[in-house]
Write a structure and sequence with these properties.
Elements: H1 7-23, H2 28-35, H3 39-46, H4 54-63, H5 76-86, H6 90-115, H7 121-133, H8 139-148, H9 152-161, H10 166-185
Helix pairs in contact: 2-3, 6-7, 6-8, 7-10, 8-10
């Protein structure tokens, strides 16, 4: 009979997968779409509530640019030391994750400008996204960006359902992103109160 791994071991695996997902700028839903799993199941995996099959773990690792290796137990301290050394550049990884959030939104803003010229707010939305794309991000400011950034899927859904609502919606998103930009420039903590917008993050 197959022995189940302990909760602490499952949680350790889940924490590693979550950190890799966040570093790549993916939501739980987006990762689930890559591997054919619902967002709720990804959430359970990250919480250690699921005893993962090797095939599922392998698929998740591949989607997150991770490599599964069997390591001799006596070599584990050396391997863990190398991993810690690699992990000592959080700003670079956070900046890359921020770019992964901002670039699709920037492409969408340009599409809105081109396809809906009457939406004056699209220009301001594009410009604040361009300004943020030029900034470095650390883990705290990345967390603040995740709170402030609108969901690209929800913007696209609004365009499909009722384009008249897109102007006010992206105006609120622009205000939230501008508050984040101002906090970065003026050196205030990135967890400062940000204006709420109607296009909240779907998960994460």
């Amino acid at each position: 009979m197959r022995k189940q791994i302990s909760f602490s071991q499952r949680r350790q695996v889940g924490d590693g997968l979550r950190d890799a997902r966040v570093a790549k700028g993916l939501t739980q839903r987006e990762l689930g779409e890559r591997v054919g799993l619902p967002q709720s199941h990804i959430s359970k995996i990250e919480q250690g509530a699921v005893d993962l099959q090797f095939s599922s773990l392998s698929e998740l690792a591949r989607a997150l640019d991770l490599e599964l290796k069997l390591v001799p137990r006596q070599a584990l301290p050396a391997v863990e030391g190398l991993v810690r050394t690699f992990a000592q550049a959080p700003t670079d990884r956070s900046t890359s994750a921020a770019r992964a959030i901002l670039e699709p939104l920037l492409r969408l803003a340009r599409d809105i400008e081109a396809g809906y010229p009457a939406v004056e707010e699209a220009d301001r939305f594009r410009r604040i996204l361009e300004e943020l794309s030029a900034l470095p991000f650390d883990p705290e400011s990345l967390k603040a960006l995740r709170l402030a950034a609108p969901s690209r899927q929800k913007i696209e859904r609004l365009l499909d359902e009722d384009p008249r609502r897109i102007g006010p919606a992206i105006a609120r998103a622009t205000a939230a992103l501008r508050a984040l930009r101002n906090a970065r420039f003026h050196g205030r903590g990135e967890q400062a109160q940000l204006p709420a917008h109607s296009l909240e993050a779907e998960d994460d």
